[in-house]
Amino acid sequence: MEQEEEDMYRDSARILAGLHDPQTSSSPGAPNLQPLYYPTWIRDGAIQAVARAQSGQHEDAKNELSDFMAEVQSENGGFKQCFNSEGGLTGIWDAQNDQPSIFTWAVSEIYEETEDEEFLEEIWDSVRDAQEYLIDNRAGNGLLKSAPDYSEDPQDFSRQSLWTNSFAYESLMSAAELAEELGKDGSGRYRAEAENIGQSTIEQFFPEDGEPISEYRLFDGASSNFGGLESFMVWPLRFAEDYNVKDDITSILDDNMKFPPGFIPGQLNYAGMLYSEGRYQEADDLVNDVLDHRSEAGGLYERVKEDGERIMAYPLGWSQAAFIMAMDEKYSQSA
């Protein structure tokens, strides 16, 4: 690693370790978010857990999923918005439909990293229940029902997104593979449901007679608001490759992604996508631009404004995790 990369990697791993509560296995999104309860999102926590596993913090990563997330999972297999460290509800929205899928993806990634079959066996029931939630909460157009996801906009109750539905496809495919690994029932059903939601996602978000769409809202209609987080569809998820839309998404992102301004996790995931495509110089340039805005203490913020002002959560666990994931991809590709 370059020295600046190594310094940021060490700081990111240190910050993620510090966010993890060893007593409850929860990890808040950031230490400066409403400090009376330090909310833990399943989404942010799962991504943090994947980065922990990649940086060698295997036990904390597994415990976050099995000892905290599985315990706060709703009876129907879904997850509420966010929780305090004791598992109490702290959010203002109800269920967020991307979180069961991101939880499953994290289980799969951490199992691949650790090869711990005991962990997988222990958490299987929660993985199974998450798939049942996805299967049971489909709308008439074949997509997941409208619900908030990472954007958490006040109008998100009416939103169906490419993000949530491509993650649902990933979740069901991963669950099928994990079921086969454990010799559990359901793999064929999960694959069939994944194909159903994958095809619906293509039909709704990639119309034959128009430009790709990133979201639908009840009152605003279709929108093409592609940002850095849509790079997840290309990397690390399999959706874009499986449905031959990598070029469509990549070309839009290449046109749209300018920094600053930007949401740091999205910028760094886009960098990871560039690394996955062998575009090292572009990715390195973006990473260096992001690191120009790290704090003197070594952490990364949530957002950087166009004028360079650093705002919102600090240090954001997702930002630190996104850096680790991008570096993992860079050096696994070049190994």
Write structural notes for this entry.
Strand 7 and strand 8 form a beta hairpin. Helix 6 (162-182) packs antiparallel against helix 7 (187-205). The protein has 335 residues and is mainly α. Helices cover 53% and strands 6% of the residues. The chain has one domain: Glycosyltransferase (Alpha/alpha barrel). The strands form three sheets. It has a three-stranded antiparallel sheet.
* Fraction of residues in β-strands: 5-15%
CATH class: Mainly Alpha
The SSE string, one letter per element, is HEHHEHHEHHEEHHEHHEEH
* Rg over C-alpha atoms, rounded to the nearest angstrom: 19 Å
Query: Termini separation (Å)?
Result: 12 Å
- Quote the CATH topology: Glycosyltransferase
* Structural class assignment: mainly alpha
Number of helices: 12
Average pLDDT number: 94
Given as residue ranges, the uncertain stretches (5+ residues, pLDDT < 50) are none
Q: Percent range for helical residues?
A: 40-55%
Number of DSSP E strands: 8
Strand order of the largest sheet: 3-4-5
Please indicate the count of domains: 1
Major sheet: size, sense and barrel closure?
Answer: 3 strands, antiparallel
CATH architecture: Alpha/alpha barrel
Shape: globular
Q: Which structural traits does this protein have?
A:
single chain, 335 residues, mainly alpha, Glycosyltransferase, three-stranded antiparallel beta sheet, 12 helices, 6% strand, globular
How would you briefly describe this protein structure?
This protein is mainly alpha-helical and 335 residues long. The chain has helices at 3-19, 42-54, 58-72, 99-114, 117-136, 162-182, 187-205, 239-242, 246-256, 264-276, 280-291, 317-334, and strands spanning 40-41, 82-83, 159-161, 215-217, 221-223, 262-263, 303-304, 310-311.
